[in-house]
């Protein structure tokens, strides 16, 4: 093939002087019009005054079949909350306290295994459903009739980073899209002024790092965007340093140049995503401050979420929960909350990781999340949003029924609990079972990939058909072995 300098990456500059003159000879005259048309009052209206359908990778897409829910709120209890101390009571632990486990157990993370240790907390049956909830979660007990408790989850990993990646991405290592990324890839978002996948970053980032919220091989517009509700500037650089008209004119010129470059790259997805991110960022300058401004919320609503709590961690998590409700109200598809560290108990990245002082650490963590999460469920229901929203409350794995050291519990991936609430689920319902000690699943065992398939199914997405070709293979969130948990579906 003869050498063609147009196709040689180093043969010509990105923009020649001749091209610059050609593009801007009339281009500057169009900048004012471009800025005007970018304004919502003009760009959002068609000739007949109707709304123009959004375009681009985040445009709302029709589901594969009628969905049960439209949005997801994921409360991730990073570190490994103990199921036998929260939602899976085991009276046998009290009956055999201090005795050795009566069967062979697997190697644990630290192999400092002791004897059977009963829960420090009593359990109470709540609501007409009678779901037992420990004294750690009295507010959550108050919404028991809205909950679907799964006691039969398993994970193939007991190390935090691997388990965190697996829970978020379906794979135990970095480089794969997070659940929120898959959701926006499949459905887009109903609000073009906000990201489709938002992570509320008031708490610590789970072990594994920021890539647990990453887009992996999906286009970059699908990665999780961190918003900090308690910061004066909730998103970095969201406050413009110049007038809107000047900024819009500058961005219009950049957009024109970028799209010229996009054509040369034959519409390289990463370049296209960068261009889209410029536009989203511009619109977020107004949308994000309005989102995190809670002055319009009633005092009763703020109190419901615990924003008036004397415990600073409760108030911080309550703010996340309230902003999460505001996000789904505004059409954001997937919202994840980060776990706020409490009183030095556990690391900021995994506060529920009590290898020692379990009673103190779990009590502090539960105080942080119990009222805000229960308030979120109540508020969503009161506003008619719970039927179209899926709330997930889960750790990456559970903890052992035997003691580690003198007063802690080690990691247990062989059986743990989570709960969900929202549309399409059996309410006030317990599904699955661990053995009498809470060590292994003995009934309706499921993996996190099954949870992923269930989430996609409730959103109206074909969990097997939602794929992305990468490295010569069609990948999907639930991989080849994940399937919806039919037993919990209404």
How would you describe this protein?
The chain has 490 residues and is α/β, with parallel strands linked by helices. It has a single domain, classed as Alkaline Phosphatase, subunit A (3-Layer(aba) Sandwich), CATH 3.40.720. The protein is built from 13 helices and 19 strands. Strands 1, 5, 6, 7, 8, 9, 13, 14 and 17 form a 9-stranded mixed β-sheet that branches. Strands 2-11 form a two-stranded antiparallel ribbon. Strands 3-4 form a two-stranded antiparallel sheet. Helix 2 crosses helix 8 and helix 11 runs parallel beside helix 12. The longest helix has 25 residues. The N and C termini lie far apart (63 Å).
The DSSP helix count reads 13
Whole-number tally of structural domains: 1
Q: Percentage of helical residues?
A: 25-40%
CATH-level-4 superfamily name: Alkaline Phosphatase, subunit A
Number of strands: 19
CATH topology: Alkaline Phosphatase, subunit A
CATH class category name: Alpha Beta
Largest sheet: 9 strands, mixed
Terminal Cα separation, in Å?
63 Å
Shape: globular
Mean pLDDT: 86
How much of the sequence lies in strands comes to 5-15%
Backbone structural class: alpha/beta
In terms of quaternary structure, the protein is single chain
What is the alpha-carbon Rg in Å?
Answer: 25 Å
Known CATH architecture: 3-Layer(aba) Sandwich
- Regions with little confidence, pLDDT below 50 for 5+ residues: 1-14, 24-53
């Amino acid at each position: 093939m003869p050498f063609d300098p147009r196709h040689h990456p180093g043969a010509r500059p990105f923009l020649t002087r001749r091209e610059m003159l050609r593009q801007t000879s009339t281009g500057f005259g169009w900048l004012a019009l471009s800025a005007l048309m970018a304004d919502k009052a003009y760009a959002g209206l068609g000739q007949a005054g109707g709304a123009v359908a959004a375009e681009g990778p985040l445009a709302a897409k029709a589901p594969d079949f009628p969905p049960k829910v439209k949005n997801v709120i994921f409360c991730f209890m990073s570190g490994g909350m103990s199921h036998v101390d929260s939602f899976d009571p085991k009276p046998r632990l009290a009956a055999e306290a201090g005795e050795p486990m009566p069967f062979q157990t697997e190697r644990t993370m630290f192999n400092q295994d002791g004897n059977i240790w009963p829960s420090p907390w009593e359990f109470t049956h709540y609501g007409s459903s009678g779901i037992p909830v420990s004294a750690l979660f009295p507010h959550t007990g108050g919404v028991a009739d809205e909950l679907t408790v799964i006691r039969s989850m398993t994970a193939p990993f007991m190390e935090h980073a691997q388990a965190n990646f697996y829970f978020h991405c379906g794979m135990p290592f970095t480089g794969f899209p997070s659940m929120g990324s898959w959701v926006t890839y499949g459905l887009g978002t109903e609000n073009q002024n906000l990201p489709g996948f938002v992570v509320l970053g008031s708490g610590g980032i789970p072990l594994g790092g920021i890539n647990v919220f990453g887009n992996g091989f999906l286009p970059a517009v699908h990665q999780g965007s961190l918003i900090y509700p308690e910061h004066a500037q909730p998103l970095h650089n969201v406050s413009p340093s110049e007038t809107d008209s000047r900024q819009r004119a500058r961005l219009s010129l950049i957009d024109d140049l970028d799209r010229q470059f996009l054509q040369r790259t034959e519409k390289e997805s990463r370049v296209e995503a960068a261009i889209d991110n410029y536009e989203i960022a511009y619109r977020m300058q107004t949308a994000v401050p309005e989102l995190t401004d809670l002055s319009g919320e009633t005092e009763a609503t703020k109190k419901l979420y615990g924003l008036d709590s004397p415990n600073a961690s409760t108030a911080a998590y309550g703010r996340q929960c309230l902003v999460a409700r505001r996000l789904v109200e505004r059409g954001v598809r997937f919202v994840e909350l980060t776990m706020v560290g409490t009183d030095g108990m556990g690391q900021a990245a995994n506060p529920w990781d009590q290898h020692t002082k379990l009673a103190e650490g779990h009590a502090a963590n539960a105080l942080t999340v119990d009222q805000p999460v229960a308030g979120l469920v109540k508020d969503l229901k009161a506003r008619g949003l719970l039927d179209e929203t899926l709330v997930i409350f889960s750790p990456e794995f559970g903890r052992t029924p035997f003691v580690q050291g003198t007063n802690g519990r080690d990691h247990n991936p062989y059986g743990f609990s989570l709960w969900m609430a929202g549309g399409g689920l059996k309410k006030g319902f317990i599904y699955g079972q661990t053995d009498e000690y809470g060590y292994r699943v003995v009934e309706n065992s499921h993996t996190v990939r099954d949870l992923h398939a269930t989430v996609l199914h409730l959103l109206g997405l074909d969990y097997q058909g939602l794929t992305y070709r990468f490295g010569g293979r069609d990948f999907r969130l639930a991989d080849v072995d994940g399937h919806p948990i039919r037993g919990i579906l209404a």
